[in-house]
# Entry
Amino acid sequence: MNLDELRATAAARHDTCAQIKKMIVSRLDLPIEPAWITDDQPLFGRGLELDSLDVLELYVAIEAEFGVALYDSDMSVFGSVSRLADHVNPALVEQAPTGSA
Amino acid sequence: MESLTSPVKAAHPDGAVYGTVLDAEVALRFSTLDAEYEAIRERAALLDLSGERIIELSGGGATDFAQKVLARDVEYLTAERCMTSLVLAEDGTVVDQVVVWGREDGLLLESSTGAGTRLLEHLRAHAEPGVEITDRTAEHALFGLEGPYAWGVVGRLIDGELAALPFESVVDTQWDGVDIVFARTGVTGEYGYKVLVPRESAERLWTKALEQTVPAGQEAVELAMLEVRQPVVRHEAGGGVDVLEMGAGWLVDITKDEFVGRDAVVAAFEGTAERRTVGFSGGTEVPAPGTPVTVGGETIGEVVHAVHSVGLKSALGLLRLPPDLAAAGLKLTVGDTEVTTLTSPYVTPKSWSTPII
# Structure
């Protein structure tokens, strides 16, 4: 990949991450700007400090906004915004080089 | 200020390898990195956190002072809770990352490894009437338990009910007739606990805990922290980077009205960052900090910090790149090696699929 192609790949991920951040802030009514959440920020624990009730809300929100059903057997989906982006937009993984994500 | 050494050094396993981390002499390895890492990720590891200075803020002005020097809101931090926060300089650079323990008569700040002297000097430079800043490190020993089955050790060693406490809970309790402070607060993504014990009882507790755990040194702990993108300030905060460039903006509460460094952080949030941090893996050689990151021969960034990841069986580290290229899923060249940028966590903790029973 040349630099322009890398920028385009990165921009696609940033767009999906921005959508997810906006959804999280809106659905959970968080008192922050979506842009304050970083792509790598943990969503649980000392990250965004979400709890199990928040997760239930996010399951519903993700299916409504991205048409993707997630299951509680794999909590690693919520490891970070960027990790979640891989699941709501599989094209990000497909276009990424082998070994990523 | 005197360099910190472990009060239980005499009880450490033979062959432990020591090194200096800022103001502390710490055990880098007790046995091998692989064995200690395996304990953290698969079973239960015992951590000697003697390199972390314990600083008490007390007096009528303690909470107000803490509000001023901590980048997150601690106004309602009760004696049953703890939290992690950054301490910033006026220019927004990171002085330290601390765990703040709520106490009935003030707060305890736990520095990161070896950074306690710098933290203490910073606190004293900002001291105000009505607050007492006291170094309590010599009175205690601090131990950690980390691992997907650390909860079992807590149950057998102290009290089973403590194992399932909510994250960042603090309990005053007893172990073997000794008053201890117990917290559920880990750093590796696995189940994690800390025990603050009077120094005179430290060796007894260490020895007892060692019957059920594997001791893990600084190298294994920092690797496990990196794998779940928990900041290690001493590796990530140098070179004048601000908290956003470091990727630690989530340890700052920008909605808080006032704290040291806030103006700089607000300016960073409102400005256009020149650099962002993203994880990478690839190759077997561990690149040194500052190694150029290139695309088609053009330098676009540099390595911040890297180690060999036991879990990934390759080099793992952090890159600082222009914001439009700081994303997972890119193939870049570090030195002479092709690497891939990653989503975090880079290794999924076993504890996320291991219930406490």
